[in-house]
Amino acid sequence: MQFFPLALSIAVLAGIWTYFSGQFNLLTWPAFVGWALFFASGGNAESVKKTFFPSVCGVILGYLAVICAPYLGGPALGVAVGVTIIAFIMVMLAPIDIFAFVPAQFACCAAFFGTGAKFWPTIIPLVTGIGLGYISAILPNLFTKQGKKDSAAH
């Protein structure tokens, strides 16, 4: 029963996001990548920061690989060279605290390519997903604390 409040908050928010994203023509799935990364990095308030910066960095680096491709050997070879360079950069950023969660950089770079190399259609849902992860993590605590206060009063 301990997972029920978390499962319920995630389920309700996932449904709301899915409906909202469809109504506003936003990609739904990248939010679930951001959401998963939030929980993979600990699922707490610190996880927002741990996930946000490397996620945005991964998208930016993917974008740079695409826009630099023509200068690195053309469409196929240029993107391959660009990805080689940005993969190196992502790992080298690991010692910097705000970029230490390297899996977020790789996952969000992959999400960028998965959206057809579209910057804003990737960033907006990814960041929204991180926020939804945070909200889904704190909602059960609000209900649990309220429940404890109510039962202590009786």
UniProtKB/TrEMBL annotation:
Name of a matching Pfam family: DUF1097
Record key words, sorted: Membrane, Transmembrane, Transmembrane helix
Membrane-spanning residues: 52-72, 78-94, 123-143
Entry protein name: DUF1097 domain-containing protein
Source organism (scientific name): Desulfofundulus thermosubterraneus DSM 16057
